[in-house]
């Protein structure tokens, strides 16, 4: 029903949140200040001894610093009384002495019909429980015994049995005075197509009641006892009570257990949820015979910020995980994500419990992967990235996936995570080289590497001049590491034929942000003293002005930009143009066009300068001679870098 304007504001004005909450908690008198409406108590939503639950009576909000529960008086009543929104309003209105507005007659009629349907469903649930205890349910009991389902667990979940007859439940409910239409509206029976009496939906099946968050029976799931049955599991049809895409099995108990600190586990089926709960994992749920829907995902996030998707250790389980990833990417928010716990090959959670107990399940949960790791695994497992085209295809797929994330902060962090994984896969393969203090690349040796080979033609084009310029860039950034992040894209693309140069570049990228002293310690720890001493003592490096004056950041910036511009001119800037277009995704079209145009201009001028025989030279900031056309290319590159920084 709809409420008139101002009704909720008036209700909140009349109520004191501390009085509403005070019925459920014991205030900590040492921390609380009733005069200021500043009240503290142990949280009613999770077990604790300290008073971390705070009520701000003046603002009308509560917050728990332990489990992060938050809300107002309405949400508090909903959570503690396990009622819906309108029922919570009715409870609070009664306390405040406010009459509820008149209901819409049609809405009231529909609500009353739902209530009657729920009563019929409860009678059906009791009928199935009774049938499990009869002689007709002997085979079903034997099956549950083989699955090690204790009697207490059967009672807890209301497990029952639908006898192998056409009208067993129908006749039982009709004998109770339930109308034929009510039974059909509940989805408990189907009309005969041959003009006969309606027949039971469930026959010769173990029955699992499906309950909503308030504990009302809204549907059933039935497991066939006949191995030749076409449908191993059968759910109730959708009714006024039941929408399978908007409910979760065991949702109410799972919400309560999660509020007390248990991790929310999402399994594939009823038996997995029951086995997990019996093993002590009470916050376990399952979708209802379909792939996870957006509505179900939102329900999970209302219960827990980071549900763990526990999937069977087979191909079908992995495919289900990938479907969940595609569904979840657009919905991710800061603090709302998923983790994935993959069971051992060929096993489901029930199998793991029977083989290894609760400790076995906990071990799998502790190893759960963040979603970005599984996304990367899907796109790279079994693939060979031995060509630029294949790498570009991987980049394109991952960019398209990351674009789906609407939250800009989450999208940015996913980009950084993928960038790190990509770096680990594609970094140049190097064998550890022994030095006096140990082995080089101790940390890096364990990282996965792509088995790629450098083209001989590319290697041949990288002569001594290129190595000298690379050395200057590396030395300048080691002396002034604050510039590493500024030149990070160019540094990543910088080709290093010298193994020591490649190792130094990789360490600079991995430890961007460290101060000069700490950076040198990392280099010494990983590579030993020789590569750094060799680099800094080289004559063409030692005479570079920014190396002689290591505190001059602006001089170092100009030096690095100048050398990178020359490297780009020598190697060609086609790759840079593609990377610039990728980096600038999301900026205005005019900005992209301008920046790419500047890059093309820089390339043209640099190439032209190489072709000229008689060249007018300027002296660069590092003392090197550069021609004036190349100076134009350098200026364009610097201008482009500054523009990009402002645009971001």
Automatic annotation (TrEMBL):
A Pfam entry, by short name: Toprim_2
Keyword Chloroplast: no
GO-annotated molecular function: DNA binding; DNA-directed RNA polymerase activity; zinc ion binding
Region (Disordered): 605-624
Any GO CC annotation of this UniProt entry: DNA-directed RNA polymerase complex
Domain observations: Contains an N-terminal zinc-binding domain, a central core domain that contains the primase activity, and a C-terminal DnaB-binding domain.
Functional summary from the UniProt entry: RNA polymerase that catalyzes the synthesis of short RNA molecules used as primers for DNA polymerase during DNA replication.
Protein's name in the database: DNA primase
Source species of the chain: Primorskyibacter sedentarius
Lineage of source species: Bacteria, Pseudomonadati, Pseudomonadota, Alphaproteobacteria, Rhodobacterales
Name of the gene encoding the protein in the UniProt record: dnaG
């Amino acid at each position: 029903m709809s409420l008139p304007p101002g009704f909720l504001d008036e209700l909140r004005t009349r109520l004191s949140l501390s009085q509403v909450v005070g019925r459920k908690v014991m205030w900590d008198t040492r921390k609380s200040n009733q005069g200021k409406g500043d009240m503290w108590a142990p949280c009613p939503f999770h077990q604790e001894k300290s008073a971390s639950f705070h009520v701000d009576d003046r603002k009308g909000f509560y917050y728990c610093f332990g489990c992060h529960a938050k809300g107002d008086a309405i949400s508090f009543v909903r959570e503690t009384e396990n009622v819906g929104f309108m029922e919570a309003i009715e409870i609070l209105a009664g306390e405040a002495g406010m009459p509820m507005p008149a209901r819409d007659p049609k809405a009231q009629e529909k609500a009353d019909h739902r209530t009657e349907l729920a009563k019929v469903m409860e009678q059906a649930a009791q009928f199935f429980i009774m049938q499990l205890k009869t002689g007709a349910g002997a085979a079903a009991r034997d099956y549950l015994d083989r699955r090690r389902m204790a009697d207490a667990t059967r009672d807890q979940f209301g497990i029952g049995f639908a006898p192998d007859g056409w009208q067993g439940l129908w006749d039982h409910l009709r004998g109770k005075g339930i109308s034929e239409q009510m039974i059909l509206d509940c989805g408990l029976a189907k009309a005969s197509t041959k003009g006969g009496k309606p027949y039971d939906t469930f026959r010769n099946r173990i029955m699992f009641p499906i309950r909503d968050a308030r504990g009302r029976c809204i549907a059933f799931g039935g497991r066939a006892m006949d191995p030749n049955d076409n449908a191993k599991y059968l759910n109730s049809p959708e009714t006024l009570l039941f929408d399978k895409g908007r409910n979760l099995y065991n949702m109410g108990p799972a919400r309560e257990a999660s509020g007390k600190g248990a991790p929310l586990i999402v399994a594939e089926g009823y038996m997995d949820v029951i086995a997990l709960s019996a093993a002590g994992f009470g916050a376990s749920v399952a979708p209802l015979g379909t792939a996870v829907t957006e509505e179900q995902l939102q329900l999970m996030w209302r219960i827990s910020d980071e549900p763990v998707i526990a999937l069977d250790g087979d191909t079908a389980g992995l495919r289900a995980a990938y479907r969940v990833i595609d569904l979840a990417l657009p919905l991710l928010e800061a603090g709302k994500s998923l983790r994935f716990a993959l069971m051992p090959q060929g096993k489901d959670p029930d199998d793991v419990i029977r083989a290894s107990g609760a400790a076995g399940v906990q071990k799998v949960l502790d190893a759960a992967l963040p979603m970005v790791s599984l996304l990367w695994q899907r796109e790279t497992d079994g693939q060979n990235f031995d060509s630029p085209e294949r790498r570009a295809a991987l980049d394109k797929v991952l960019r398209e996936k990351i674009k789906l994330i609407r939250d800009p902060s989450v999208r940015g962090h996913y980009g950084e995570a993928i960038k790190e994984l990509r770096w680990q896969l594609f970094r140049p393969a190097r064998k550890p080289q022994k030095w006096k203090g140990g082995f080089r690349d101790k940390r890096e040796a364990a990282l996965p590497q792509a088995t790629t080979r450098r083209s001989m033609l590319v290697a041949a084009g990288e002569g001594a001049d290129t190595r000298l310029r690379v050395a200057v860039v590396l030395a300048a950034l080691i002396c002034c590491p604050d510039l590493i992040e500024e030149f990070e894209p160019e540094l990543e693309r910088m080709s290093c034929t010298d193994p020591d140069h490649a190792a130094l570049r990789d360490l600079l990228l991995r430890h961007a942000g460290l101060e000069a002293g700490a950076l040198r310690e990392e280099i010494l720890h990983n590579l030993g003293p020789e590569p750094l001493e060799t680099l800094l003592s080289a004559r063409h490096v030692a005479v570079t002005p920014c190396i002689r004056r290591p505190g001059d950041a602006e001089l170092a910036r100009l030096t690095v930009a100048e050398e990178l511009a020359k490297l780009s001119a020598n190697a060609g800037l086609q790759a840079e143009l593609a990377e610039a277009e990728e980096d600038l995704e999301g900026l205005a079209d005019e900005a992209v066009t301008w920046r790419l145009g500047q890059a093309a201009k820089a390339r043209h001028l640099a190439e032209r300068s190489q072709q000229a025989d008689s060249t007018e030279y300027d002296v660069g900031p590092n003392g090197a001679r550069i021609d004036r056309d190349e100076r134009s290319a350098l200026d364009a590159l610097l201008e482009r870098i500054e523009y990009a920084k402002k645009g971001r």
